[in-house]
Design brief:
Blueprint lengths: L1 H8 L9 H9 L7 H10 L2 H5 L24 E6 L10 E7 L5 E6 L5 H16 L9
Antiparallel strand pairs: 1-2, 2-3
Helix pairs in contact: 2-3
Amino acid sequence: MQQLLSTLHDSPHGGHSGKQATFQRLHSYFYWPCMRAMVHSYVQNCDVCQRTKSEHVAPPGLLQPLPIPNQAWDIITMDFVEGLPPSNKFNCILVVIDKFTKYGHFIPLAHPYTVVDVARLYGDNVYKLHGQPRCNTRV
């Protein structure tokens, strides 16, 4: 049985076709119990098929440009820097960057923090100085 699988899958005639094509080709000539499971296992363990397997996903779409802000603090980005050594009980930094001027606010945080903590720090350090950013960006 292994010789049949090898002949109908690995040979130039078989061309390392997939599970279904190999099964159909084998089934047109032979039959034995559990043949589908054996073909599935053989193709699954085929070294050549595993190294040259193609992806069956749709290609990604075109890149979309990011919006260009018209004024300072129109569009901002936020991120966290974590894994820092402790300093005055703080071990994280909330980074808020303006996309127009590249000006940034670096606000110290301590783990564990919650959404309420981050919102309070944002309001106390960024919102009170610059106001509400424009929120109609499509990224």
